[in-house]
Specification:
Chain lengths: 411, 411
């Protein structure tokens, strides 16, 4: 008997009507003989409501109590969905994270799952029940409620699928799969039948917010087949696969990710001596600011320019820190730019194909788009460009790599 | 160091502002060196909101899931109150019922507390923390969430006070104590300094909804001193005492309770034979209808009249059941009256004083108020009268027993 873990997000369970619609879908699945473990998020809007209440109590709400508060959101949904299922004659039983015994570390508001006890759930499944589990939450060793951070319900679903050795983990979202790029930017963006975990990881970390990144890591670690589906229309969605097939069979590029969340900072006229990069970045990281891309150009003389990007929210603060540093280190000057965008091509196929970068740069150049920074990994090439060219760049690359065509298996 | 369990109801924590006001009070108490365990209810309105959601899922929501749902109400409040306390520099820590290990039976939506584990709370108190516990909820032997029914937060507070051997259990309400009767009906109703548990039990069961009746039983069983106080103005409130003092010291009557929740049903012309009462009441109790007062008049011939009261919500159904029975048992006729009220005088002092009933009946008769039914216990006399005389009867009795005067110790 096939066992599936199905995760429905906040929008899918956002109203009483939507919960009934999800229940209808689950009844049909159960009628096909599927064993079902359902993971749900808080009803959309609920988490924001609770956060607003917390901030009325304490500008920086205490993390342990924040978790006690936020975890009620999913607890409401599990109860309501069970009622909707029972109203349809299905046996159903709800579990909070603590009741399952989803054990996490004690890093409140961003805890990591350490262990899942599958006993109670198995007993219910064997008794013919649908099991409904609150996503996003667990319990630490002391019995305190923890949460996994925003989007953590995906992680709960994948982790449960791993613990239960489910046939597949189905993530229901408001899109019907993973696309070659954002369909709002490129009309002929295409749904991918499959995508590898590595590609998905890059897409997720680059801002294609279909799945929470930690859940993808989890799925990769435990070999859980994950399928992304629409909760509103039927369809096969996109299956996330393990990259155990021959890369030669893969298209060079699977998708184009982008974001405009970053800002760029440049320190001009740095003396090209060992240890200078760490001296520049030390005050930034000490302030808890995360750095994304880093580029250092070798200068003509013994001076060089040092450029890096941070989240746009951290831009002002970073600039201030660099200006203090500039005085201390006798740097020439500090420059910054908020009007940038990052565009990336992602594909496990590019490992085995030379010339991918060249094709990318040529295509952008042909449109007169200047590349400000470049960063590469084995399966990704990212460039920073002027923000105003973002849509043009994405469309250009989408057609340059023929992503609008049916799966292009390179020869 | 004095240890108090303090319970704040839904109105007292109904808004962010009110929670801040409660936190201010607690800070002042902690500054006096008091050890504090705080029990809170759901914010007012929250339980109704959740019930409405549940009923959109299932007309008769499944009890286990209802408890999962409703228990989130208090869980929100404990987190918010802890934040408000921490914002004021107090160390605070929240506990759900399950986290304390308030173990109950499995009677969902009306569970009974079986055991409380005081270890975790004691550890926190010893560490100088304020402990905030979700009222109204517990966990059964299987780890399922249970609730104690409406008003169950009072029971949680009293049970915790018993388990922790607290000096006193303070119940904060929107009234500043227990009154000789409802001040909205009698202008010069007087706050009682003390009331015995037995009197409180009678007052609670008769509709003076200051405390949930089960919490009073609990307090009596475990000898927990309970004080009812206002959460809005300072004052000594009313201390609920054990009736271990000499009744002679007590006033004859401590208070007047009343309600108009009941309806009266009379079966006329019942043959006065053994077993007839149970035959009449069997279909009523089989339908889950609770009977309050029962009176059987001895008739002149071998026929008698049999009268009882039920909750007004059950009146129509009871009448139908009796009409079916009347045909089966060849009864003369069935009559009913919804326009009744029950008025009771309550006082442990009446045990040792003859003539209390006479004084009550005389006072009512002097005002032309006809008594339809009478029922007595050791410390209570209840009469059923026409609803329209309710206020007059309460005022008449209040002054007949001199309840408006300072504590009248009878000679």
């Amino acid at each position: 008997m096939a066992l599936y873990v199905k995760k429905f997000g906040g929008t899918s369970v956002g109203t009483a009507e939507r919960i009934h619609a999800v229940a209808d879908q689950l009844v049909a699945m159960a009628a096909r003989g599927e064993q079902l473990v359902v993971v749900v998020s808080a009803m959309s809007g609920e988490t924001n409501r609770l956060v607003a209440l917390a901030e009325q109590m304490m500008p920086q709400p205490a993390p342990r109590e924040m978790d006690v508060l936020l975890s009620t959101g999913e607890q409401v949904t599990i109860a309501l969905l069970c009622m909707a299922l029972m109203q349809r004659g299905l046996e159903a039983r709800s579990y909070t994270g603590a009741q399952v015994r989803i054990t996490t570390d004690s890093a409140h508001t961003k805890a990591r799952i350490q262990h899942i006890d599958d006993q109670a759930i198995r007993r219910d499944l064997n008794a013919g029940r649908v099991v409904v589990v609150a996503g996003f939450q667990g319990m630490d060793g002391e019995g305190s409620i923890t949460t996994l951070g925003r989007g953590g319900s995906d992680t709960t679903a994948v982790a449960l699928a791993a613990a239960l050795k489910a046939d597949e983990c189905h993530i229901y979202t408001d899109v019907d799969g993973v696309y070659t790029t954002d369909p709002r930017v490129v009309d002929n963006a295409r749904r991918l039948e499959t995508i590898t975990f590595e590609e998905m990881l890059e897409m997720a970390s680059l801002g294609s917010k279909v799945l929470q990144i930690r859940s993808v890591e989890f799925a990769g670690k435990y070999n859980v087949p994950v399928r992304v589906l629409s909760s509103f229309k039927e369809g096969p969605g996109t299956l996330i696969t393990f990259d155990d097939e021959d890369d030669m069979e893969k298209p060079m590029v699977s998708g184009i990710a982008f974001n405009r969340d970053e800002a760029k900072l440049t320190v001009i006229g740095v003396s090209d001596t060992p240890g200078i990069a760490s001296r520049i970045l030390k005050p930034i990281s000490a302030a808890g600011i995360e750095v994304d891309m880093i580029v250092q150009n070798v200068g003509a003389d013994d001076r060089t320019d040092f450029t890096f990007t941070v989240h746009r929210n951290d831009y002002r603060r970073s600039l201030e820190l660099l200006q203090i540093l500039a005085t201390e280190l006798d740097l020439k000057s500090v420059a910054g730019d908020e009007k940038i965008a990052k565009v990336s091509i992602v594909g496990v196929g590019m490992r085995s194909h030379a010339g991918v970068a060249t094709r990318m740069f040529d295509a952008l150049s042909a449109e007169g788009i200047n590349i400000q920074m470049i960063s590469t990994s084995e399966i990704k090439i990212s460039v920073v460009i002027n923000e105003k060219y973002l849509e043009l760049a994405v469309r250009t690359l989408h057609s340059a790599f023929e992503l609008d065509k049916a799966p292009t298996v390179t020869q």
